[in-house]
Amino acid sequence: MASPLNFHLEQYEGPLDLLLDLIRKQEINIYDIPIARITHQYLEYMQRATEMNIELSSEFVYMAATLIHIKSRMLLPRNPELDKLLPEEDPRKELVERLLDRERFKTAAEMLQEKRVVEEAAWTNSQIAQFRAEAGEPELAVTVFDLVKTFQAVLERSKHRPIYEVNNEEVSVPDMLRYLHKFFGREAEVSARELFERQRSRRAMICLFLAVLELVKLQALGLTQTGAFAEIGLKRLRGFEAAFGADGSMATIEEGYR
Questions:
Q1: How far apart are CA 86 and CA 3, in angstroms?
Q2: In whole numbers, what is the pLDDT of the chain averaged over residues?
Q3: How many CB atoms lie within 10 A of CB 122?
């Protein structure tokens, strides 16, 4: 007898990952999302998950409500005369910004994972013992993964303390690059945790984290640790000012986050 058909339903970490996957597979312009089609596909996924007894978090339900709300706003007719006096902002704008932030964060995580694979492969090199012997007493090895763990811990703690969300906050990664340029113009080193916790919103924390990654990649900032299990620090390196120089590095990075 022929075996029954097996249906596989992909699982996602959150609703933004599901939306990004739908957009990517259909090659949709993220700045011009066909909200009616995406909402239908999103609800269809939730229906199938329910039928297969897959438990979805409350975030999926909240996003479904958000999509339906955006869809209804876009269907409502607008008074042309009112638009002249008070132009209405695209109802999709906030959703697009959240999707772009999530995509950048995922890209950074994938980059770190690739770096980890390379580092682990290098650690198993048969000559590593010889290199360590020649170098003398080894220093504490701090990687970007330690910074990621610190950032994740700060985000987790932020759920249990007041975060002052600013309405219509326009903070971006380029803004945070300029913030870091000014900050490390005064300070040579700071605790990564302290720097993240100074931010007033989760969006600001994420933008700051991405800006730090860019400067670490350019070798403008370095990671430090005073002892085993001690806090991760950020310090200004010799190439800090050069990274903000006239070679176009910052302009290229800023363009990538527009």
A1: 61
A2: 77
A3: 9
Contact 167, 221 (CB under 8 A): no
Residue in 125, 148, 127 with CA at minimum distance from that of residue 209: 148
* pLDDT above 60 for 98: yes
Tell me: do 74 and 126 sit in the same domain.
no
pLDDT of residue 179: 92
pTM of the model: 0.50
β-sheet with 189-191: strand ranges across: 189-191, 233-236, 221-224
* pLDDT, mean of residues 212-238: 85
pLDDT at 114: 62
Angle between helices 93-123 and 58-75 (to 10 degrees): 140
Claim to verify: residue 68 and residue 125 sit in the same structural domain: no
| Residue 188: closest CA among 141, 222, 146 | 222
- As a whole number, mean pLDDT of residues 99-103 equals 85
Asked if residues 156 and 205 have their Cβ atoms less than 8 Å apart, the reply is no
What's the full length of the chain, in residues? 258
- Alpha helices per DSSP H over 136-230: 144-158, 173-186, 192-197, 202-217
Query: What CATH number corresponds to the domain at position 149?
Result: 1.10.10.580
Range of the domain at 60: 15-79
Q: How far apart are the first and last CA of the chain?
A: 56
Q: Which two tokens stand for residue 237?
A: 């390196």
Number of domains in the chain: 2
